[in-house]
Queue: 3 jobs
Job 1
Amino acid sequence: MTASEHRPQPAAPRVAVVGPGAIGTTIAAALHASGRTPALYGRTARESLELLVGDARISVPGPVRTRLEEVDTEVDGRVDVVFLSVKATQIGAAAPWLRALCGRDTVVCVLQNGVEQVAMVSPHVAEGVTVLPSVVWFPAQAQHDGSVRLRGDARLTVPAGSDADRIAAVLDGTLCTVEVSADFPAMAWRKLLQNAAAGLMALTGRRAGVFQRDDLADLTRAYLQECAEVALAEGVALDAGVADGILAGFRSAPADLSTSILTDREAGRPLEWDVRNGVVSRLAARHGIRTPVSDLVATLLAATSDGPG
Ligand SMILES: NC(=O)c1ccc[n+]([C@@H]2O[C@H](COP(=O)([O-])OP(=O)(O)OC[C@H]3O[C@@H](n4cnc5c(N)ncnc54)[C@H](OP(=O)(O)O)[C@@H]3O)[C@@H](O)[C@H]2O)c1
């Protein structure tokens, strides 16, 4: 027997996914396919999760636990990494899972849209628990049969640091690539601009083809320029062509390309309007910047999402 065979192996990190929807299923499947099956906590009970990647199907054994009493603290308690993939509107409702699962050394990696992930999740975890934001770049879509289809390469960006290294290690060698960025705020704001513009699809009730209209393109450009001005006031200088670049991306996308905020509208679900659109006007007000297009878009999305009427 060699010396290395005697050496105790480090325990595999204990990983949980809270909110195993489209994004959470993708991460759970990536982990499972590499032999690191996570514990699953959600709102809807399921025996397993299914991810479709091209012609392949990855089946992640469950169950998806839905009751706090089901957290076995001997087995699941105090996990090393939690991937939080509920919608931003669902953070408060999912907070009890975080309290049950997180110990001092836990990293909660937030898989959501927006630039306020740390501010929104931190109040729900104990002191010492790290909340790590991310940018989720891949589209994943729930299918009618409950499976999730990954559309594109799975990729996350996290801010550089030792916590990022832990996330990168957990996902190392899986189908989900982790990029560690020294300029994370710029990445997060660029994605925010993309999401903000996609809000116009929810307002018009139309897919990416709607950006072919010149009048809507002009409106989008004006909106994105306001967003970039607010980013700058927040200390993030985006490149001068960012508005035109994002607009060009929508105009050259397949006309039937959708976005999760449009899907949510079509399904009559609450919209993540505040973290994707409202945030721009909220931050602008703090800096005394006028954002008339953003204000109008945010108000219409808020009313579309939350009513009354
Ligand atoms: N989907 C994409 O392509 C995409 C791309 C980039 C970024 N994002 C962002 O990623 C985040 C997640 O999006 P998503 O599309 O994955 O949403 P989703 O499919 O709706 O998944 C959310 C999951 O959280 C579960 N959930 C709701 N309340 C819960 C609670 N109290 N406790 C535990 N679980 C709960 C939901 O359960 P139910 O099954 O009961 O609803 C669902 O499984 C959002 O911020 C979104 O904007 C999504």
Job 2
Amino acid sequence: MKALAAFATGARGTGKTAWCKQWIKASGSKRVMVWDYKHDDGLSDVGKAYADWAAFVAACTRPQFTARYLVSPDHDPHEQFEAFCRLAWREGNLLMFVDELAEVTKANKAPPAWRKCVNVGRSYDNGTKSLSILAASQRPPEVDKSFLGNCDVIHAGRLGYASDARQLAAMWGIQPKELATLPDLHWIEKRADAPEVARGVLSFSRKKPAVKPAKTRP
Ligand SMILES: Nc1ncnc2c1ncn2[C@@H]1O[C@H](COP(=O)(O)OP(=O)(O)OP(=O)(O)O)[C@@H](O)[C@H]1O
Ligand SMILES: [Mg+2]
């Protein structure tokens, strides 16, 4: 399977994290590392959570795992992110999901280990290792350019800044207003291998059957 890089963007609450969860599931990846920057309730059902770094590292050496690192608010997030990316690189053959990417990268500044994962991770160690990368952030210009440029898929919900909507719309040949006015959970997506954008609405399958309406008395 090709190691893909994908990016989800959009204002808060537009469905980025929810879409990433569906992406992870659809990928069928048996080895998943998650960077849970804000200890997101929405990620609570994604693998096992680790606040302890050593335990997280141990989990990521297993043949199969979905391990979610709860970024420590008491330590420098940049140092933690560098360690997270180095671990992903060392282990290889996994999907790494970085939520809230803008907290650890800037448009013109990618941490070295992240840059290596992004630029070289498609295939390395004589083709024996690869990294699939998934990241989410509210604004594209807050994310490092080499990641954006390397993405196979860019998935956008409503963009709150007019300049963000203009930029993406110009790249995609659509009207900025469309990106600026998408309702929550509505999205527009561009795949590098497709000439046109796709549009859709995020939906959630119910695990349990819907609650039946109470019976009315005769
Ligand atoms: N399993 C679910 N079933 C129904 N609705 C859901 C489910 N998961 C998420 N949602 C809805 O999706 C909305 C978007 O949530 P999500 O956490 O994906 O936003 P986000 O774009 O990541 O926002 P933020 O930038 O604040 O992280 C939530 O407000 C919630 O209503
Ligand atoms: Mg989110």
Job 3
Amino acid sequence: MTTDPSTRRSVVVLGAGGTLGAALAARFAGEPATDVVLADLSDAALAATVAGLPAERGAVETCTVDVADEAQVQAVVDRAVERFGRLDVLISNAGILSPNGRIHNLSTDDWERSFRVNVLGAVNGIKAAVGVMRPQHAGSIILTASVSGLTAWSHAAPYCATKAAVIQLAKVAAVEYARDGIRVNCVCPGTFRSGIHDGLPGSALDAIADKHPLGLGAAADLVGAYSYLASDAARWTTGSAIVVDGGYAAP
Ligand SMILES: NC(=O)c1ccc[n+]([C@@H]2O[C@H](COP(=O)([O-])OP(=O)(O)OC[C@H]3O[C@@H](n4cnc5c(N)ncnc54)[C@H](O)[C@@H]3O)[C@@H](O)[C@H]2O)c1
């Protein structure tokens, strides 16, 4: 493992305890010159993610965070800077499904919860990251959106609306920070098996699978898009919403 700080990069993953977060953590931590800060609301989920990391890896820090809380997100980024001296990539990946219901049956609390985690969480990630990346004049911010931000899902209006907001947030942030050397993009996954579906009946997941020409995905099918956006190969890519959805949005 190289120890020259000028040749290393540091990556923060918010929402690292979930299915996709664990796959992203394993990909980035497994790169020999990459150090990671893994953060999640759930300490148990974070511990499971760390247990699944490859043996050959860079340094790993973990933090408990509620992404809806600006100060807590700032503390995660502060940890990355204290430990690794810089922040090269921030991945805003925490997200929650909204309760199943038509718009008139969903409460203000349902809407606020979705917006606080899915949208404000991403905003807090961007704010904390640009505080470090602007002085560096370099950085890549990647937001996890969803094809539900591009297509209409009945009974999931808060989820769809918040993911559409994330896509637009990435575009505006890309324009605002391009001259600061910061790229901002999002990934729009189709449905892949994960803990987010724990409350859904199997039949519902089967019906969703039928709408994906390539069937349901797995978290491993998504990591390549993040890896690309985090890399120098994507140096001319900003404001993009990369759809990785098994063909869901194609028809
Ligand atoms: N699974 C899918 O089919 C799918 C499709 C499109 C987009 N996504 C998005 O992918 C991302 C990852 O989801 P996943 O499918 O791996 O689900 P998951 O439930 O396995 O992971 C989500 C993680 O976010 C964490 N989290 C929730 N609220 C948080 C908060 N307030 N602060 C910090 N962490 C919090 C959870 O503890 C969990 O570890 C989410 O943004 C989700 O919306 C998932």
